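Bit of a strange request maybe. I'm writing a small parser for structure token strings and I need a real example to test against, not something I typed by hand. Could someone generate the tokens for this chain?
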Amino acid sequence: MDFDWNTEQQDFRSTVRAFLAANLPGNWEELAHGPGSEAQTLFSKEFCGALANAGLLVPHWPARWGGRDADPWIAFILAEEMWAAGEPRGGQYMNVNWIGPTLMRYGSQEQQARYIPPMARGETLWCQGFSEPEAGSDLASLRTRADRHGDVYRVNGQKIWTSYAGHADTCFLLARTSP
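Reply from user aminoacidic:
Good idea to test on real output. This should exercise your parser:
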């Protein structure tokens, strides 16, 4: 097996590093130590918009959703460089890594049209509604229910913390729909 990065992957890593060097502010260390803070969240919205304009926010997404159809290694390299820099995407890492792809796979056409383009442009922040009393993040113990009533769901349950809730536009809520 060849464990070296190919030329395209090395070039991509260099591009991401150059972007980070040019776009992280001098006080980034202060901002980075406040995950979910107002300052960090405001910065991440501006930063993710710039990443999107440079074609670096969602290169691993399908082209029809604003990506470049890049292979999974490009996603890995992007995540690795963002992590090394203190994750300047803030809560938007959830959008690009799992909420967007989940909607691409399982969302209705209306949901895809409404939610995916703003994610690809770096314009929106989602929060996650997972943790519950007596369960924490053990999703097998999830008790919150979503019961269908016509075209809508009525949600009953309780969450104990929600990452980025104070700054989010939309919540990715997990709930049981069957016993």
